[in-house]
Amino acid sequence: MLRFQNIEFLWALAAIPVFVLLFIAVTTWKKNAVARLGDRRIVDMMIPEVSFSRPWLKFILFLVAYGFLIIGIADPQIGSKMEEEKRKAADLMILLDVSNSMLSQDMPPNRLENAKRAIAQLIDNLHNDRIGIIVFAGEAYVQLPVTTDYSAAKLFLSTINTSMVPTQGTAIGSAIDLGMKSFDFKDGTGKAMIIITDGENHEDDAVKAAKNAADKDVMVNVVGIGSAGGSPIPIYQNGKQVGFHTDSVGKTVISKLNEDMCKEISTAGMGTYVRATNANSGLNIIMDQIGKVQRKTIDSKSFKNFEDRFQFFLGFAFLLLIVEFFISNRKNLKLSGLNLFEAKKP
Question: For residue 1, what is the DSSP state?
Answer without folding.
Answer: -
